[in-house]
Amino acid sequence: MSAVKKVALITGANRGLGLETARQLGKQGITVLLGARDLAKSETAAAALKKEGIDARAVKLDVGNAADYAAVAAQIEKEFGRLDILVNNAGIFLDSRGPNETSKTSQEILHKTFDTNFFDVVALTQALLPLVKKSAAGRIVNLSSILGSLTLHATKGSYVYDAKTFAYNASKAALNSFTIHLAHELAGTKIKVNSAHPGWVKTDMGGEGAQMEIVDGVKTSVELATLPEDGPTGGYFHMGKSLPW
Fold this sequence. Notes:
Belongs to the short-chain dehydrogenases/reductases (SDR) family. The protein contains 8 helices and 8 strands, in the order βαβαβαβαβααβααββ. The chain has helices at residues 16-26, 39-50, 66-79, 107-132, 150-153, 166-185, 214-217, 219-225, and strands at residues 7-10, 31-36, 56-60, 85-88, 139-143, 192-196, 235-238, 241-242. The protein is globular and about 50 Å long. The two termini are 34 Å apart.
């Protein structure tokens, strides 16, 4: 490991997948910045990680608030001079979990879902990219979902064929497109950009029936956040395996 500690920012990191991602990165000796809308909750989470010997810092970061982007960027620039890892973990699921009701999906649900799961991710990444470019090996991980796979949704009999939650699925497909486009722009640099499907994880969002434990659900994100120089970019992965777009 380099003598200079890496610095990672994880959004939505006060609980669930975000917190566990911070924990596993922190255990690798990486300084982890826990982004959360509620600073008090971020501080509580950071304090818990510190008790485990992890260099964790609380950061107020509401992904829907552009003013927070500037403040976080200024803080990172001042304290570290760069950002090595950005894990865009924060996301929401507002669709009904019942039968396919695409034609009834409200504009409000579509806008709220896309704001958090797509537009805010793009805006935050754009704001922090100058700092990632200062890293010797920048890594950007976008938390997607297998539900964002257009190929699988169009393939009758596939694992997700009947899981038609329109707003969420479409937002993750759009996020995957961002991954592809940004990775293409940054090809030839030391920055790698990838989409991660965590699995069907036992979180509030995962809901009833989820099969994976949180500790396993973050393995893909952690792997992509710490890829070696010859690792992939512009991909869509789960547990080391490529997923169809």
